[in-house]
Amino acid sequence: MSPTNHQVRLAARPSGLPKQSDWNFTEEPIPTAGAGEFAVAISHVSLDPAMRGWMNAGASYIDAVEIGDVMRAGAVGRVTASEHPGFAVGDHVYSDFGVQEYAVCDGRGAIKIDPSLAPLPTYLGTLGLPGMTAYFGLLDTGKLKLRDTVVVSGAAGAVGSVAGQIAKIKGARVIGIAGGEQKCRWLTDELGFDAAIDYKAEDVRRALREAAPSGVDVYFDNVGGEILDAVLTRLARGARIVICGAVSQYNATDGVRGPSNYLSLLVARASMTGMVVFDYAAEYGKAAAELAGWMQEGRLISREHIVEGGLSAFHDTLLGLFAGENTGKLVLRVGSD
Ligand SMILES: NC(=O)c1ccc[n+]([C@@H]2O[C@H](COP(=O)([O-])OP(=O)(O)OC[C@H]3O[C@@H](n4cnc5c(N)ncnc54)[C@H](OP(=O)(O)O)[C@@H]3O)[C@@H](O)[C@H]2O)c1
């Protein structure tokens, strides 16, 4: 175990794709827990497209990370010392501990997790915020109904792969959109999607005409941009579009591309609604229990894409999200379980 705490701090606000020089790698003594706190040795850090937005200045659904701060990130680890009545040495915990190897926490926002139920990285994916996002985005914002035709973009990623599988469990017909033949095959052959469209090789609009002949009832949008515009042309009457994210736009330097086909909403009497997972915090427990149940029954497959490189691999691994290098939830290992 390292005697010091290594950290990744935001050094500069990027324009476009983040650069290595946008980060500072620092080291400090391992922090100790004071009264009402516990210390944690972090094993895995979550890498999320949203990190790109948190690097920008300005108001959003959450405060920007300030220059010099440890980069915000969800993480899991093991309690190594505790002065907190609710957490004991040896407990496994999740919180936004940041991109570092050790952290101290006063318990706020920390959740105890059970490694005998699922491996620790699963609590950053299917049983963590991506799983919650898929669950509430589809069932609450998307108002999924039996026999709906559902389209999910970013379908082989952390949120998309869970959203598509929940839709299947709930009796929908599901079409995934993802980059590359291998990802598309994973969606249909292993996750049970009814069809998959490789947006890098196919014309999405034309492919949707074949895969969703009677139109799209729910579009779970993770990517925005051209794919959103293509799906807008195929809406069924009363369709619901869930604006979960727009990863294709997060590094844009010349403004976000809006949907030029938005008048399809009028024609289809459709809606397009944004959702933020944090609004459902009070209900995470219920959703996690249901997701864990489906996993135990073998109806929901959770896949984590774990990069073993430690903090020095953080920058390159983060860029991988924008190049589609991950299948399932992207996680960086920074310490032992
Ligand atoms: N609203 C909320 O509360 C909330 C919470 C969590 C996440 N999100 C959003 O959910 C979305 C998915 O997040 P995630 O964590 O599950 O990430 P992810 O899907 O696991 O990883 C990102 C994926 O996006 C795809 N991608 C990258 N650039 C693209 C482009 N230009 N066009 C189309 N696809 C592109 C890549 O897959 P391909 O190989 O298929 O291109 C990549 O693997 C993101 O937009 C994120 O911001 C929202």
How is this structure best described in words?
This protein has 337 residues and is an alpha/beta fold. The protein contains 9 helices and 15 strands. It has helices spanning 50-54, 129-141, 158-169, 181-190, 204-211, 225-232, 264-267, 284-296, 314-322; strands at 4-10, 23-29, 38-46, 75-82, 92-95, 102-105, 111-113, 149-153, 173-178, 195-198, 216-221, 235-243, 271-274, 304-307, 329-333. The strands form 3 sheets. Strands 3, 4, 5, 6, 7, 14 and 15 form a 7-stranded mixed β-sheet that branches. Helix 2 (129-141) packs across helix 8. The longest helix is centred in the middle third of the chain and has 13 residues, at 129-141. It is globular. Bound molecules: NADP nicotinamide-adenine-dinucleotide phosphate (NAP).
Helix/strand-derived class? Answer: alpha/beta
Distance between the termini: 12 Å
SS strand fraction: 25-35%
Can you tell me the overall shape?
globular
**What's the mean pLDDT score?**
97
Radius of gyration: 20 Å
Question: What distinguishing features does this structure have?
Answer:
binds NADP nicotinamide-adenine-dinucleotide phosphate; alpha/beta; 337 residues; six-stranded parallel β-sheet; globular; seven-stranded mixed β-sheet; 9 helices
Entry summary:
By secondary structure, the chain is α/β, with parallel strands linked by helices.
Question: What's the structural blueprint in terms of helices and strands?
Answer:
Blueprint: E1 4-10, E2 23-29, E3 38-46, H1 50-54, E4 75-82, E5 92-95, E6 102-105, E7 111-113, H2 129-141, E8 149-153, H3 158-169, E9 173-178, H4 181-190, E10 195-198, H5 204-211, E11 216-221, H6 225-232, E12 235-243, H7 264-267, E13 271-274, H8 284-296, E14 304-307, H9 314-322, E15 329-333
Parallel strand pairs: 8-9, 8-11, 9-10, 11-12, 12-13, 14-15
Antiparallel strand pairs: 1-2, 3-4, 3-6, 3-15, 4-5, 5-7
The protein binds NADP nicotinamide-adenine-dinucleotide phosphate.
The site of NADP nicotinamide-adenine-dinucleotide phosphate has 31 residues, from helix 2, helix 3 and helix 9.
